[in-house]
Amino acid sequence: MTDTGGLWAGASEADTTPSLGTDLGGYFESRFADKIERPLAAKALAFRSGDSTVVLVSVDILMMRAVDIVDRAKELITERTGVPADHVMVSATHTHFGPATVHRGGGPTVDPAYLVRVAEAIAIAAGAAVANLRPARIGFGQAPVNGVCFNRRFRRTDGMVEFNPGTGRDDIVEPAGPIDPTVTGLIVEDRDGTPIAFWANLSLHYVNADRDTSISNDYFGAFGDRIAQLLGRPVRAQLTNGCSGDINNVDLSRAVPEQNVARAELVATAVAGAAAAGSMMARRHTDVPVSSKLIMVELERALVTAEDLQIAADALADRRDDVPFSYVKGMPIPPKQVKHYAARLQEMAELPESAAVPVMIMTIGDLCIVGLPGEIFVEHGLAIRDGSRHPITAVVGLANDHIGYVPTERACAEGAYETWRGPVSWTAPGSGERLVAAALAEMGR
């Protein structure tokens, strides 16, 4: 490959669709796939400028831990392409209609062979994207999407905060937090203006499928179809998830009645429109630097007291039907989930008291992409974007590792589902704020 200078780009993807009968992740109980509604894939976009190459990979999957998938995938990418691991961002879309990848006890089972397959698919997609590098130009920008993002935590008349309260309630006062309707769009073209790929980012949990037992890439995949229609040709399009730990597409006003796949298609259309609006007429760049750095941030595990352990033991032995653990504030854990969280507390108590987690800062010209590892609350993403020195900043959640829900300190004090702790969502209050501070400090260097 003869280098003509400037920015080069390449894209590719690899199939990750599992077989029917696969145990699907995303719910507390097992669901065995009986239909492929939309296939799954690992999608890669590579950029090279000078001696630096960076790769963005998104995977149609619920979550990926570094130890299970990401570390191995990056090792393979480095072996095959020479791109360093800290120049590769691997994120999950968070579809709830793909295979389980993390064992959470009493729920979906994990197929170790599928974890190996996904790591290989990530490496194949990234390797092909690097092999496909060619002279390119890019345009990027941001625009809001309306009627799509909703904060799923609500304040009630009694002062409690409730997760997903449902419609028709007269005790619901207001959302307990903000939303971030900002869609970041990045169009990649060859030097003649022919579209090659499209990358986007939005803080939205997922939408839905028509049946719980379907395999589907949800609205993330439908987004790619809409982008291809807008551009008038097939392109490699990936939509990454942002800081959506407390954000979903459940509109309590029911302004648009469509649900499930019909709704996912509408949402994809709206998001694709916003992504295009922010980027299609943006200034094109043919010669911009690319860079990436990864830092490890030490986070503390949530406190587990001796009293917590006794409560868990009593609940599992049917000596009590509640679990008022020290981390539970506000609404109690429902009776049907008492044993689940009792067992998870015992597992969490076996984890180290702290662990280092990855924060990635990637830049492509004036576009800064921050990668955080988990289901990050939207306020954290807003804080990073507001504090960024870069003209345009996007924050990708579920990136490079998975540490579960990362609420704000205020949300931890208010309680409800996302604040309940276990071996997946193990971080202590204040962890999100620590990630924000670390990212902003590194971005300012």
In a nutshell, what does this entry contain?
The chain is of the alpha/beta class. The chain is 27% helix and 27% strand. A hairpin with a 2-residue loop joins strand 3 (41-49) and strand 4.
Describe the structure.
The mean pLDDT is 96. Helix content is 27%, strand content 27%. It contains 9 helices and 21 strands. It has an 8-stranded mixed β-sheet, covered by helices on one side. Strand 11 and strand 12 (195-202) form a beta hairpin. Helix 3 packs across helix 4 (260-279) and helix 7 (378-387) runs parallel beside helix 9.
Radius of gyration: 21 Å
The geometry reads as globular
Beta-strand share of residues: 25-35%
Number of DSSP E strands: 21
Record the strand order, biggest sheet. Answer: 5-4-3-1-6-11-12-14
- Indicate the percent of residues in helices: 25-40%
**Number of distinct helices:** 9
Structural class: alpha/beta
Terminus-to-terminus distance: 34 Å
- Give the averaged pLDDT, no decimals: 96
What can be said about the biggest beta sheet? 8 strands, mixed
Low-confidence stretches: none
> What's the SSE pattern?
EEEEHEHEEEEEEEEHEEHEHHEEEHEEHH
Layout of secondary structure:
Elements: E1 7-15, E2 35-36, E3 41-49, E4 52-59, H1 66-81, E5 88-92, H2 112-131, E6 134-144, E7 150-151, E8 153-156, E9 161-163, E10 172-175, E11 182-190, E12 195-202, E13 214-215, H3 218-231, E14 236-241, E15 247-248, H4 260-279, E16 290-300, H5 306-316, H6 338-349, E17 354-364, E18 367-371, E19 375-376, H7 378-387, E20 392-396, E21 405-406, H8 409-414, H9 431-443
Parallel strand pairs: 2-13, 4-5, 12-14, 18-20, 19-21
Antiparallel strand pairs: 1-3, 1-6, 3-4, 6-11, 7-15, 8-9, 8-10, 11-12, 16-17, 17-18
